[in-house]
Write a structure and sequence with these properties.
Chain lengths: 190, 190, 190, 190
DNA sequence: AATGAATGAGGTTTCATTCAT
DNA sequence: CATGAATGAAACCTCATTCAT
């Protein structure tokens, strides 16, 4: 693995473990197995790694969506989307949250839209096709709704895994309720 | 105003301005007009102020909900809720986001549920009454749905104000779409 | 117990526990159950308590000597002296050492001679009587030898209790060797 | 001279001058001519330098013993030992005392035995040879007695130089008395 | 005589950043 | 490109000391 990649991976580990505040470049380089000075050949600060981390996360989610959201009724596809986002959130725990904040705290806020665009687009396309197939309400604004859905699902996933620490059973019931909520919201049940 | 209160206010200012990372105790005490050592009589670290800030935010939102969500059809009440949360989010900008992260990064994660409980309860009660009046779907789990709604609305508000920096007109259209989304989700339109 | 006495006792506890370096007035007053400011009505600094502590220690040793060193052959009296000093050293552990250092580090070094004088005198008198009774070498300088004996015994006691942490059995053998050493040194066996 | 060595030398100076209590890392680094942060690359606290200082002291004493204690009657060798320890104690004044205390006050107490071992061994060997040559009492426990002798001599040296501040003439008489004391103690005069 | 909240000087400690190798 | 010892600015944090009550 090349140096840059190793830095990003190490940064993910350290940020997840210590949070942005307590994470130090010293620890990142130690974990990456490179010299202190080498870090600066690739990044200017620990927060400068964030966009790369965000990109990696979005890529993971997209890969998940592409592979796990099957063709079929949109109702079922929503279930798949929820499942994927929950899985990734659980896997990377606090990281999802940190990315938001990490980007916010820097000059990289602007990158946000850019980085998440593919994800929003993917869901928007799915809604668009659903709309054309008259599988959801005709008055749904696909652009806005894509973001609302992703925001809702991520928000609940964070609740469930980061704050409430629910047991597996409760999580399933939560996901079902959320599924019903979103499906109704876009009229996927008619 | 007593010392503790002044620290909290100063911390809000500094966190909002600099973010958690760059905020320093030195600056907080300067803004609060107290001595360096005095800070430590009340808090152990800058992050230890977070639970108090969160509590203040929740109190603000609750006050907003109590005063601005009128009696009337539940559909309209949802509009009011969205309006209140958007207003507070805009007012405190990054702070909402920082609280999440600030609590996550510390030993105070546990406080989260406790602090937000009143807010969740308030919405849950509203849903409960709507259910009893058969104004919303009978199969709605009020506890889960309360959290889903608050999460969704906050998530969209943050999108709108923190990342997308939308113009006023787009925000209104976004709010309308969100309103429709939530109302449909719980079956408030039948 | 009056305030002054309580401060001295608390200081003994804290110094024993934390050492001079880490001991703080804050902790002493907490242990003494008095207010922060009250300390200064009795002492100017934590080290200013040292002479009082030293006096208390010397008093303890003197009481021990007076009560436990019986009339009889000087050889046996030496054994008693060793026993008393070992007992007190064990009881107050590091404190003996700290007193030396505590006094050294301050303006109170001068007090040292004054405070220890009674102890030296007591042993000197014992040697003097031994000399007159021709129970020890006639060329012993009682003044110097008194100090040498006390120094040796304290030194060994500290070795045994503070550094080597010997078991009870080894300590007894050590004491016996020391006893023989001192008795021979002053010619108490002829 | 390498950084570590410079820190140790500077620490010796500052400790000797100010005592443990008043010595600061800031002053040590200033005297060593290095940056504040550099200190922490080698030691964690000012007391962490103590074991190194102790080692240096022991080395000095050993060098003194090796070079100044001549072959010859054991009686005379004892005189040499006393002379060396007095000289070093005078040269380093308070430092000898501080080492004891410095080590006591920290996690490094354990190091004590280890550091002093060579010194004890050296004297023990000398006694052993004296015993084999029947120059001293046959019932002397060389291990214990080595420690007793070193302890006694150091104790008296500290008395003389640190507390009593005796004049040169009195010191010579004190040394003579001590010499006689130790020689008699082990039966070196027969 | 006693209190204890508040102070702020002055220490400690960290860690991003540099630069000679 | 890569290194990592050294730096020192800038934060942290403690705690003796004060003083109004």
């Amino acid at each position: 693995m090349d140096k840059r990649e190793r830095i990003i991976q190490a940064a993910i580990d350290v940020f997840s473990d210590k949070g942005i505040e307590k994470a130090t470049i010293s620890e990142i380089v130690k974990k990456a197995g490179i010299a202190q000075g080498t870090f600066y050949l690739y990044f200017n600060s620990k927060l400068a790694v964030m966009p790369d981390i965000a990109e990696l996360m979005v890529r993971k989610i997209l890969e998940g969506l592409t592979s796990e959201v099957k063709d079929g009724p949109i109702d079922q596809q929503i279930g798949d989307i929820i499942h994927v986002i929950f899985k990734i959130t659980n896997e990377y725990k606090v990281l999802t949250k940190l990315i938001y904040t990490g980007l916010t705290q820097t000059q990289y806020v602007g990158s946000w839209e850019e980085i998440y665009a593919p994800l929003y687009n993917w869901v928007e396309n799915l809604l668009q096709r659903g709309k054309e197939a008259q599988a959801i309400n005709s008055d749904v604004n696909t652009k806005f709704t894509a973001k609302i859905i992703i925001g809702s699902v991520e928000s609940v996933a964070e609740q469930v895994y980061l704050y409430d620490h629910l047991d597996e059973d409760s999580i399933i019931r939560y996901k079902n309720e959320l599924h019903k909520f979103v499906a109704n919201a876009i009229g996927a049940y008619r």
